[in-house]
TrEMBL record:
<feature type="domain" description="FAD-binding PCMH-type">
    <location>
        <begin position="110"/>
        <end position="298"/>
    </location>
</feature>
<dbReference type="InterPro" id="IPR008274">
    <property type="entry name" value="AldOxase/xan_DH_MoCoBD1"/>
</dbReference>
<dbReference type="Pfam" id="PF03450">
    <property type="entry name" value="CO_deh_flav_C"/>
</dbReference>
<protein>
    <recommendedName>
        <fullName>indole-3-acetaldehyde oxidase</fullName>
        <ecNumber>1.2.3.7</ecNumber>
    </recommendedName>
</protein>
<dbReference type="Pfam" id="PF20256">
    <property type="entry name" value="MoCoBD_2"/>
</dbReference>
<dbReference type="GO" id="GO:0050302">
    <property type="term" value="F:indole-3-acetaldehyde oxidase activity"/>
</dbReference>
<dbReference type="InterPro" id="IPR000674">
    <property type="entry name" value="Ald_Oxase/Xan_DH_a/b"/>
</dbReference>
<dbReference type="InterPro" id="IPR002346">
    <property type="entry name" value="Mopterin_DH_FAD-bd"/>
</dbReference>
<dbReference type="GO" id="GO:0071949">
    <property type="term" value="F:FAD binding"/>
</dbReference>
<comment type="similarity">
    <text>Belongs to the xanthine dehydrogenase family.</text>
</comment>
<dbReference type="GO" id="GO:0005506">
    <property type="term" value="F:iron ion binding"/>
</dbReference>
<dbReference type="InterPro" id="IPR016208">
    <property type="entry name" value="Ald_Oxase/xanthine_DH-like"/>
</dbReference>
<dbReference type="InterPro" id="IPR046867">
    <property type="entry name" value="AldOxase/xan_DH_MoCoBD2"/>
</dbReference>
<dbReference type="Pfam" id="PF00941">
    <property type="entry name" value="FAD_binding_5"/>
</dbReference>
<dbReference type="Pfam" id="PF02738">
    <property type="entry name" value="MoCoBD_1"/>
</dbReference>
<keyword id="KW-0500">Molybdenum</keyword>
<dbReference type="InterPro" id="IPR005107">
    <property type="entry name" value="CO_DH_flav_C"/>
</dbReference>
Amino acid sequence: MCVSLSAALVNAEKTNRPDPSPGFSKLTVSEAEKAIAGNLCRCTGYRSIADACKSFAADVDMEDLGLNSFWRNGESKEVKIKRLPFYDRNREICAFPEFLKKEIRSSMVLDSKRFFWHNPVSLIELQSLLDSLETKDGSLVKLVAGNTGMGYYKEIECNDRYIDLRYIPEISSIKTDLTGIEIGATVTISKTIEALKKENKAEFHSNGEMMFKKIAGHMEKIASGFIRNTASIGGNLVMAQRKHFPSDIATILLAVDSLVDIMSGTRHEKIMLEEFLERSPMDSKTVLLNVRIPTWESIRNISSDTNSILLFETYRAAPRPLGNALPYLNAAFMAEVSSCRTSGGIIVYNCQLAFGAYGTKHAIRARKVEEFLAGKTLSVAVLYEAIKLVRATVIPNDGTSSPVYRSSLAVGFLFHFFSPLVDNNGETSNGLLDGHMNDLLVDVSKLDQNTLQLDHDKIPTFLSSAKQVLELSTEYYPVGEPITKAGAAIQASGEAVYVGDIPSPANCLHGAFIYSTKPLARVRGIKFQPKPYPDGVVAVITSEDIPKGGENTGSKTIFGTEPLFAEELTECAGQRLALVVADTQKRADMAIKFSVVDYDLENLERPILSVEEAVRRSSLFEVPPSLFPKQVGDLSKGMAEADQKILSAEIKLGSQYYFYMETQTALAVPDEDNCMVVYSSSQVPEWTQVVIARCLGIPEHNVRVITRRVGGGFGGKAIKAMPVAAACALAAHKLRRPVRMYLDRKTDMIMAGGRHPMKITYSVGFKSNGKITALQLEILINAGCFVDISPIIPHNVLSALKKYDWGALFFDIKVCKTNHSSKSAMRAPGEAQGSFIAEAVIEHVAAALSMEVDSVRRINLHTYSSLNFFYEGIADQPLDYTLPSIWNKLVTSSSLLHRTKMVVEFNRNNKWRKRGISQIPIVHEVTLRPTPGKVSILHDGSIVVEVGGIELGQGLWTKVKQMTAFALSSIQYDRVGDLLDKVRVIQSDTLSLIQGGFTSGSTTSESSCEAVRLCCNILVERLGPLRERLKEQMGSVAWEMLIDQAHLQSVNLSASSLFVPDLNSMKYLNYGAAVSEVEVNLLTGGTTVLQTDIIYDCGQSLNPAVDLGQIEGAFVQGLGFFMLEEYLTDSNGLVVAEGTWTYKIPTLDTIPKNFNVEVLNTGRHQKRVLSSKASGEPPLLLAASVHCATRAAIKEARKQLVSWSGQDGSTTNATIFELEVPATMPVVKGLCGLESVERYLEWIIGTK
């Protein structure tokens, strides 16, 4: 992100814009946000990053920056500007450091005896080179320019020869003339965009200029800026032709009759792009030289009306508008139309319709549709027939995901293109073209907004504004201050050292896992093809290599263990079979691609791949009675009191992948005396140490696990990190050499397990006023093949689900053992599902009663009495129950009532966009855990702190530093701020600080703070007498003097503690609420989150800035779960979502456009650590508000669809439906109507 922003700043300075005010750049807010589009950092929520980038912009609104919430009220703009770090535009641009260039060169040197890199500087030289290579048998040759295709098509092995085409002038330039633009094949997409957007009225008429700008605008939605800066236009087209890449560029250029120039040997051909795409895949000796985009005049139909105008538009429907996502379908349409002098209608003289990326080999022209429309006068009937032809033409190949959805997109895009030329009564729109006859190109989306409310630019793609409201407290200064996160500067600069950044020791080896692709099979053996061992492979480690006395243990919890490697039988697809150890990570990763596993399926039962099958075969994990939740109330009585009932309704919830930025990684280094030092990216180093010791059969004191920081965890670096560390340690132990491993994203996704999928069946009884009297649930939890932490999930599900007063709550929960990968804790494990189930039940009851959902929610909110009944012993005092006041406050602060009316009005006036708004509450139970701490004061007065908690990016170290400074402040009189600067929190070391436990459950920060406070209290007590003596002698005592004297007098300046929470206060409840408003595009199923307002009770925040980041980040991660992230598997249970191409987490363009958060500071929780409350996980549950708002919008769309079908009376079927999680575009479109366009046109024709 830093590099992307830096490039944007440099490019902005090249413009002719006026000089900005001192401290700002020429950058605009829009450019700042676009610069980081496509970058991934879900856990931050993006809003804070966007603010930091926008703070450079000359046109930034200072009041819109979240930084404002930490500044004083009433400060002038000038004062606020001075608080920002000064940006010097005139400073020399920082170049890439020379020492890093050398480092990169040294790691990428090709073996000159085996591989060759050629840099031809002319086409003649290129021809000669290609001719000479024909005589070399078996040489693998690759032509390269940007080589960004490597990110999509992973190459298993190196080619023998690489030919870099970038230095050939004939194919690296851009030429323009009156007939069009010719772009060299190696020109980057970014340079192509610049050329197409360039004002060039001398060369082109306005029609050509506008068409080129629209093509450029579409290209800006492809990939991300840093990819477009490298990727070539020719490389994209060659991937589309040779490998059937779902290219946007091929589609949009196909619609405008583009041509390509190709060279094969001495033969040059200039052919139409359509023919190029349809040919057999190019070989490595054939070269694409350039592509020519013609102007309209050069391809215009000579027989057409001289007063005709050109309509041109491009389309794409993708999971993210701009955030680097392949489309479900793309399209580009060009049509020449004119008013008919006799009928007054609009004639289509000719049109060119291109569709692509929908599951065929390449983009196509819809020739039958073009022929049908040519010469026709537009009417509803004509448009209806054209749409039927489109649906029959755009048919995805077998195996393509969401095929019917993709066909419906084609229909919707064609409807959007032509429908503005047809009025609401089904007649052609007389006068639509009046005033445009002199404009040779008209933007179709602006022709008639009353007819079709669907404009690409109607909703801003990025953030428009955000507001953060905080209450700061100085009671425990510096605790409560929004100080900068510890380590923020070195993280932003890339200097922070993670496990993968530790330099490899001498003779270091690298590992990669071979995993099973079968869910249940005997493993006969593993071999490699075509060689016994691929190049660089040193060993293959299996369970047979575990030393005598060791155990085949890869991970453990209090519930059981999971083997490091499968032995005779593999129990799930993705289970570890062996570890390949090679001299480099790349060779290890490549080796597993050549591995062949010999499976035996004879005489084995069928694998269990569903929770229903697990129940039928009694394949269940036991839940300890102490963990199983208790039933609440009398179900029979509650059901008897109900006026109405819903029986046996179903909900299905899928999984979610962690998507931490740093995948699983470890480094194991053998030490003297049979010891092992392991650097692990782990949330639980203590248990990692135990697992390694058991695996190697050595005492735990021989194993030292060190964790400095973790690059994102969310629960995935707890149990799932252990086998990575254990495998490295086993290999290092056997080979007596250091071994490290960094899982590639595909392997990490296959092995991660993720969030627990569930099937829920419920029956609910309720009164006619919406008050629920009883809820009965059957919940089947897919735990996978090993127990992991799954027995805690039933408790967590029910805890979050109890946020409403159900009257009586009865449940039957089964934890199912299946042949899927074992599921593990993921941020708000069980609670995310439980809170959603509650909302789904409420929504269903409201729909059955035809009531407003928010009314049903309100009537079922807990009173303090019912809260105490459902959360027995946890509810604290009545004043601690802040949810009712939060609920009412949010109604006012979000203008909910007014906006609800506006949503109703919007939906009344818009056919193809519908809005929904929803408010939901959360009640989230958390538990404090025992946590150790150690504080030591060194000679110079600096302070070193160790805690059991791990810094995952959640700001734990920051809060610990603040607590240390506060707790030690009572022994000195100087400013506490000086003491804060003296504190350093250091890495976790299992031989230095024991009993570290888990960093999870949102409470480790406060537990670590309390552990540190106990240590500091000991030190204060030890230093107190000395301070008093020095004070009597000297009057005042400086901190450094006090500590120096303490060392001289042998005062023990190191203190350790173990914070053990009181049983009566170790659990407590967190409260919050959110209002979200969305807009759904009925033609694509795309959902835009217009606004989210959150109020969350943080108690008395230990650091409001950190907690604000946690709230926003958790919400956006929840947004991914409920709306975007599909963690799919095949029929064997093997994960098929293998990386960023197929798994879409939220990006900057998918978060709420207005994102408002208030951190409620309620400082009366005396049983809490300095009255603070957790913030890491509970806000994730609030993202269900977006899902509920989407449901409300879909409900309006379905009502409209029923009205078009001519069905009078009840719309119950329209309002009662299940909206899947995640509510992706195909899911939403399916519920809004895959044939909604046809139904609308039939309705128009029928009423005409």
